[in-house]
Amino acid sequence: MNNLDIKDKTGGLEFIWANQHIKITASRIRLQKDGGVKGEVLISTDKDVILHRTQFNFSSSRIMTELTNKMKARFEQADWETIIEELCYHTIERTRQATPAKELWTSEEITKPEYLIYPIMPLKQPTVIFGEPGAGKSELALVFALCMILPWVDNPLGLSVPKRSYVPLLLDYEAEDDDVKWRLKCLQVGMGLPDLHINYLRCYVPLPDGIEQIEEEANRFGAEVLIIDSLTAASGGDPKEASTALAFFNALRRLKRTSLIIAQTSKDKEVKHKTILGSTIYEYYARSVWELRSTQEPGEDEINLALFHQKTNISALQQPMGFKLCFNEDQTTISHQDVKGIGQFLERMSATTQILEKLKEGAFTPKELCEALELARNTTDQALKRLRAKNKVIKFGDKVGLPHGFI
Predict the structure, then answer these.
(1) Is the pLDDT of residue 99 over 90?
(2) Are residues 208 and 320 both part of a single domain?
(3) CATH (domain of 372)
(4) Which one of 138, 306, 384, 402 is CB 3.0 to 4.6 Å from 406, fit for a cystine?
(5) Over the chain, what is the mean pLDDT?
(6) DSSP 68-131
(7) d(Cα 75, Cα 93) in Å, to the nearest integer?
């Protein structure tokens, strides 16, 4: 017998033939559209002497024969026909094998979905924050990292954070470590926080191809959270292709960690309702999706930020959240602010919110509200009906306004 031992590894499999003194690691395994299986193999002795490394088609008889003959010439002591045949058989079977079905009982103890940072990041789920270039996405991601590392209980953003520290690993596909260190230092000084560090990995290959290294580094640091900056580079391939998005989320799922993913916005500037750049699969597979918008006057050192909740699978959509970032040489501060107070963000809010803000200026007819807010008449009428039912607006002849004392 060949005494074969097979171990599951993130992104692959490890085969050990103890009596043959051979070890093969199969990694970057992909199931092809035609049902074939491809990947990479690293062949070594049990003393970790590398014999061969190559891209490999586990489904091709011709390539199997070529590899068998090549290995016979390099290490003739082993039974390479059997080894390569077992390698291909078990890799194909495990790659094609679906997870067995199981029974889910309501009588079992059921855990309510939890948040790592409420209401932004659900625990053990992927969260996407997307926005225009320069909107402050990376800066905000570092602030969320501070919230989970410290943990920053009395943070000025009004966020609920975990009771214990969570360790993140920043997977950086865009910036360099010096840039991240500078931003982190400015936040630490500006907010009067203690010295701290963030675990950082500069990434050069897409997440599906680098999953083995990411898993190793995450384990080395004890990282429970992945911060991925940014989605397009981490996915690789054409972002418009569904297969690119599926490969990214399949790899992310194998890493089994909470994730915060920074993404770019769709390029159509004429569309009011922005989406994540690329395939709609990115939004479908994320458990929570937030759009980040920002405004900044030329020459000013302040940026107004607003997060709009676009999609969730575990709760109701959250109200928009507003923040202010202030830069002052080597210091950065961030604070919470009322997003409704920023005129540029008002159009992204619900019709009822826009109407209530407009009525703070006085009473208006429904037609005047439609014209001022650029809302359809039906939308305005429905919003006013809901507001009257809640006694938040009252009629003054042909106009509507706020009740006395309403804020």
Answers:
(1) no
(2) yes
(3) 1.10.10.10
(4) 402
(5) 90
(6) HHHHHHH-TTS-HHHHHHHHHHHHHHHHHPPPPP----TTS--PPP-EEEBTTEETTSEEEEEE
(7) 27
